[in-house]
Amino acid sequence: MNKDIFAQVDTFLEQTFSLEDDVLIAARQSVASNGMPEHSVSANQGQMLYLLATMCQAKRIIEVGTLGGYSTIWLARALAKGGNLTSIEVDAEYAAVASRNIALAGLSDRVTIKVGTGMDVLNELKLDPEPVDLFFMDADKPNYCNYFDIALSMARKGSLIIADNVIRSGKILEPQSNDEKVLGVQQFIKHISADNRVITSVLQTVGDKEHDGIAISLVL
Ligand code: DHB
Ligand code: MG
Fold first, then answer.
1. Distances (CA, A) of 205 to 9, 33, 155, 213
2. Distance CA 83, CA 85 (A)
3. 195 CA from centroid of ligand 1 (Å)
4. d(CA 201, CA 163)
């Protein structure tokens, strides 16, 4: 199978649906031009996040892993009226790049970027009693189980907990991996599969990015 076909189809869909505007293109490019890891979600994945956030009428969104704010823009654009998104980024320089992109997108009034580790910031955010409608984890794979548990404690019935990069080019199948990211997602898949407070669907993804996967859990 020619893997290039996955990228070609992604491009075809991006163009057919006109998924990226200038703001999103600039956000994606800023990641590359600032020497940041090119781990932004693809445009098609961004559109899926937008769709899911719209479906659950999200008023409060939390994202772990801002990077350049590309997925942040997709998610924030789907916020219901008066809603807000908090995105957590451990790297202050990445957060500064993201902050500029969010401002260019005209979303600074509803997006807050917090610099710190996921767990530190989440422990602070969980003091707010307002439920989180959508939680997107996209950083620090070894902590995915912890993020999931805290997300569940902040959720309501019908909230979504979404996790990126859970397949890792099929490395999820390796029985004795010593890659901490692989171990993190292996533990995570086991953890959520055993949790009957959620219904989860894990989808493999191909396209612009490597073969990977996204886990979507609906809180019951
Ligand atoms: C990695 C992280 C990501 O968020 C991603 O989408 C792809 C790869 C990584 O850390 O390897
Ligand atoms: Mg990712």
1. 12, 25, 26, 5
2. 7
3. 25
4. 11
Q: Is the pLDDT of residue 2 over 80?
A: no
Tens of pLDDT, residue by residue over 98-124, are 999 999 999 999 999 999 999 999 999
Threshold 0.85, pTM exceeds: yes
Q: Which residues have CB under 8 Å from 134's CB, separation 6+?
A: 52, 53, 56, 58, 60, 61, 62, 75, 159, 160, 162
Please answer whether residues 137 and 151 qualify as being in contact, where contact means their C-beta atoms are separated by less than 8 angstroms: yes
The bound ligand whose nearest atom lies closest to the alpha carbon of 71 is 2
Instruction: From 91, 165, 168, give the residue whose CB has the most ligand 1 atoms within 8 Å, as the site to mutate.
Output: 165
Token digits of residue 172: 């999820």
Enter the DSSP assignment of 3. T
- Write out residues with Cβ below 6 Å of ligand 1: 39, 138, 164-165, 181
Q: Which residue has the tokens 């807000």?
A: 84
| pLDDT tens per residue, range 45-101 | 999 999 999 999 999 999 999 999 999 999 999 999 999 999 999 999 999 999 999
User: Tokens at residue 133, please?
Assistant: 């409608």
Backbone angles phi, psi at 62, to 5 degrees: -125, 135
Residue 57 CA to ligand 2 center (angstroms) comes to 23
